[in-house]
Automatic annotation (TrEMBL):
GO terms for biological process: mitochondrial ribosome assembly. The chain crosses the membrane at residues 88-109, 141-162. It holds the Pfam family Mpv17_PMP22. It is found in: Membrane. Keywords: Membrane, Transmembrane, Transmembrane helix. One of its GO terms (cellular component) is membrane. Coiled coil: none annotated. InterPro entries: Mpv17_PMP22. This is Mpv17-like protein. Belongs to the peroxisomal membrane protein PXMP2/4 family. Its main location: membrane.
Length: 178
């Protein structure tokens, strides 16, 4: 049994299968994160909502995969702390692209127009940015310093499971700053 699991992970995380593995992982954990949020709030499970969350993973998963490949190829050096700091900074700067893709993408999957989806993103931008600021810099510092490149999207996907619970809350609730 253990050897079968090891073979599965070896194949799944082989370079030729990594894009598919990263995408499937992200799709699965996005849907699961929304399901957990719904159950946590005591709501009856809206499986269509969870499917929409999962479906955006078909965009976010490949985006993450390509982003990490790009960072690993462009930000290199001998001093680990400096490389990690540069990658964390770059990742934080790109964060609004991922967040807008997520919020606007889910809104469009709900049948909203692009302009309504972008308006929704703008109204939730600072909540998403605050969440991202709390979660991603420390997560990415660990990710870039200790996680092998082939497992970065897996690591991010696990953190994303918890992050998505909060994103689901932000997405489906009207929030204010006071």
């Amino acid at each position: 049994m253990a050897s079968a699991i090891r073979r599965f992970f070896y194949r799944a995380y082989a370079p030729k299968n990594l894009l598919m593995t990263n995408t499937v992982t992200m799709v699965s954990l996005l849907g699961l994160g929304d399901y957990i949020q719904q159950r946590f709030q005591g709501d009856k499970w809206d499986w269509r909502r969870s499917v929409r969350f999962a479906a955006i993973g078909f965009v976010i998963g490949p985006m993450n995969h390509q982003w990490y490949k790009y960072l690993d190829s462009r930000v290199v050096g001998k001093r680990l702390k400096l490389v990690v700091a540069k990658k964390v900074a770059a990742d934080f700067l790109i964060s609004p692209v991922f967040a807008s893709t997520f919020i606007a993408g889910v809104a469009m999957l709900e049948g909203k127009s692009v302009s309504v989806a972008l308006k929704e993103y703008k109204s939730k931008f600072f909540h998403v940015l605050a969440l991202d600021f709390c979660v991603w810099p420390p997560t990415q510092a660990i990710n870039f310093a200790f996680v092998p490149a082939s497992c970065r999207v897996l690591f991010i996907s696990i953190v994303t499971l918890f992050h998505n619970c909060f994103m689901s809350y932000i997405k489906h609730n009207e929030l204010s700053w006071y």
